[in-house]
Amino acid sequence: MRKYIINIVIVFALIPVGLFSQDFRDKYFSVLASAERGDIYTAIMQAERYLTENEQQYELNLLLADLYLKTGDIAKAEITYNALNEQYPSEYYYGMAKCAAFKSNVDLTIEYLKKYFDNNGQYLRHQVISDTSFNFVKSDDKWREFWRNQQFGKLYTSLDEIARMIKMDDNFEAINLADQYLSKSENHNLYYYRALANYNNKDYKQALKDINKAISMRNRNYDYWRLQSLIEMALKRDANAFTSWSKVLDLNELDAEAYLYRAIAANNSGKYYQAHDDLLLYTKHFKHCDSVQYMFVIVSMNIERYWDAIQSLNILIEKDPSQIKYFNDLGECFFRITDWQPALYSFMMSLDINPVQGNIWFKAANCEYQLNNVENACSYWHKAAHYNYPEAQLSLQKYCK
Length: 401
What we know:
Elements: H1 22-36, H2 40-53, H3 58-71, H4 74-82, H5 89-102, H6 106-120, H7 125-130, H8 141-149, H9 154-167, H10 171-182, H11 188-200, H12 204-217, H13 222-234, H14 238-251, H15 256-268, H16 272-285, H17 290-302, H18 306-319, H19 324-336, H20 340-353, H21 358-370, H22 374-386, H23 391-399
């Protein structure tokens, strides 16, 4: 499974996600999956093709614009960001500021950033400064003068400092500074960042108190619900985590990782059908995650969706044919649907890797018996008994006299 790390990022205005069609969500995730694999040009071609069908898909336009920027195609990035002007002005201004910076146009960069700050209402100064997209203008005197002349409220300055501390993994200092301000007045941002710092310090109970306080003040904030979901998982409160991840997806159903996390919470709390549906969506696009693919196998087997499990196991075996558990599970799937020949083949492949598996010899023997190969079945039951599988003796006594 990919290692997921909480990164503090520039908080754009939450994209007002509605009920997207399954078709659009699939298209968006296919582009995202290609980009995550590092296949940026394939991702761009996919997005361009999808947008010829409906150019008003703003979320896909935003993703495509960012991809253009990664490849250095500034002209196309500008055209694509322009499509966001009315629907998502914050993303438009910030994107255009990055495009201007890539062209070393410091005046235009500053102009767009001012509009971004005015429109966004809040920002974290150090994150804009540390954004490598602005490297081409950072040595310009006008850039330094711009930051010297910016006057922002004391609260935003303190939030910026707390967020910077967290990014530098100085969580204790961040908590202390947040404590100072919260002792004077309550603020949902402060509760959020103190929760994040406590989460990083593994003080999950205090983190949960803080994030719940932030949510009580801003109950439709996507970032707050996402952090709460991660905290609930860290506390192993899987039923609560499932509910929280569902709220995250209510606020942004294009959060691909949220489907994975909700699937984990669902599986751990016995909601196997929901776990199956979420993993089916996730693994459809993100097949490169072997541990996720394997979790889908286990969930599918739990709800007797054996052909789903078989399909995923074939993918896993093709990538890594040395894993005994893949062949054992593949054999078990075929065994449960009474398809004896492929079940036998799978078990024997496992035994080729490791013959010291009494339970697998026993299952292979049962397959041979069902195929009317009694002599082979008896031979395998003997091997199962040799490797201390107790039920083998009963079969030997009954069928191999």
